[in-house]
């Protein structure tokens, strides 16, 4: 039996790490330096190859071949990209952009929706400077909201235009514009052309305005009592939804008297001055048949001047009556004291000549837009003459309108013909301030309303309410036609447009019907703000206006009696021009928003609208 041959054992496997550990430390350093040098050599070779053969060369060759192939007709030639708009410019277009604009406008409408009507709520707005404003006036709220969405700012513009044109109906015009957009939003989503909608809006607006002029009731100005009653009812209607609604009987007389004292041809509302004095109650407010303004800053000697004058001779100046200091860097070289004294004497002679000329003209009341110094004040006091400097331009203009004088820019040639007069001038304490009052003016085409009240925000809101009432009465004087308020005219127009839409063919029928439904937002919102059952009231109004349009044409929402009633018989009147202007402005705003299908805004414009300031450039 053969003996099995024994094999020697295999040596253990040696790894790289074991081999590295077996090297002496001094050789390990040399080995690492070798590897580092080899890596650096590889990087150097790669860099040289890249410089010798850049990648653009291959790209240029590829583009050259592509151009040759395109010339042979084998493939189309690619057009280069053209950049028109600045980097960062945002563009939005199409139906989504249109729907976004409509949503923004509806959000603005929801903000002021609850301020409509006698039971409307107030809004408290705090601006960037921490100033507090409490108001339910649509134009004031829209102005303080600082809307930055471009399309929604259109509603701000129409509210301001309504306030400047007629003074009232600012909330109604915004709500009506928003409701028009809401009613046609479904048509836009279904792909109806906006031009079809715009055409239908304008057609419905023309029909509505013609209907208002047909229904409006005119009052003859020959009957003075009836004419004044018309103005008082229009003023009272505009005050119903204001803060002064509880005192409308008191303020109605004041507003009508103020407007009737103006020039009936021009009816310049700037000739009605409104002064605010904190303290007291609203009933302490008064109407001055003439001009009243707060006592201006006065120098020593003012206490010695007369505080009341009968039949004064009034002069209004735009002249500075005080010794002026030298101009900066002014230099006068004199060699003797007598020369310096001559300069001082000349300066005093100039001002004394002016004062003497005023006294020689016979003036007993001196008013100036510029300062009247202590020298002139004492000079006039010694001669029993009243003077006031730094009087505002508006007050000076109203004094001239009331007394018949004219502003003089020099005292040279001043004569009695340049002076004005009134029955009585007095300085009177009103609250915590002193006022200068000019009463019994022979050419009085101006007046002043002095408002009293507690908090400053309260007086500011009273001023805004009176401004709206003054504008309404002013429009009623110019246009002696009125309609019933309380949503009566809107429901009649809605009924009229629904009946007229049945005679219209095509898509225009749907648009006119949508406008008719949108007009119901005014009575509906009046009911919601008053806490009434909206469905019940709107159903009754629709039924009555459809049952007998001639008999129930003036039926609307009676907030006081909480019922549907004839508001024309209850003297809830509004100038027809307010409704005409509201409908036309709302329709034009809706048409403008629907005509926009693309919005392009760059980043710089967005930053400026957000309140940021552009970075200043570096000058040379």
What's the gist of this structure?
This protein is α+β, with helices and mostly antiparallel strands and about 625 residues long. Helix content is about 50%, strand content about 15%.
| Envelope shape | flat
Discrete helix count: 20
Q: Please, what is the oligomeric state?
A: single chain
Tell me the radius of gyration: 41 Å
Helix content: 40-55%
Output mean pLDDT.
Answer: 81
Structural class: alpha+beta
Q: How many strands in all?
A: 21
Distance between the termini: 112 Å
The low-confidence runs, each spanning 5 or more residues with pLDDT under 50, are 56-61, 612-620
Largest sheet: 5 strands, mixed
Q: What share of residues are in beta strands?
A: 5-15%
Question: What do you see in this structure?
Answer:
Helices cover 49% and strands 14% of the residues. The strands form 7 sheets. Strands 9, 10, 11, 12 and 13 form a 5-stranded mixed sheet that branches. Strands 7-15-14-8 form a 4-stranded antiparallel sheet. It is flat and about 120 Å long.
Properties at a glance:
49% helix, single chain, 21 strands, alpha+beta, 20 helices, four-stranded antiparallel beta sheet, 620 residues, five-stranded mixed beta sheet, flat
Blueprint (SSEs and pairs):
Blueprint: H1 16-21, H2 25-52, H3 55-71, E1 90-93, H4 95-112, E2 123-126, E3 132-135, H5 138-145, H6 153-165, H7 170-189, H8 194-215, E4 217-218, H9 224-239, H10 248-260, E5 272-278, E6 286-288, E7 290-294, E8 308-310, E9 313-317, H11 337-360, E10 365-368, H12 374-382, E11 386-388, H13 393-403, E12 407-408, E13 420-421, E14 424-430, E15 433-439, E16 447-453, H14 456-478, E17 481-484, H15 488-501, H16 508-518, H17 521-530, H18 534-547, E18 555-558, E19 563-566, E20 573-575, H19 576-594, E21 598-601, H20 603-609
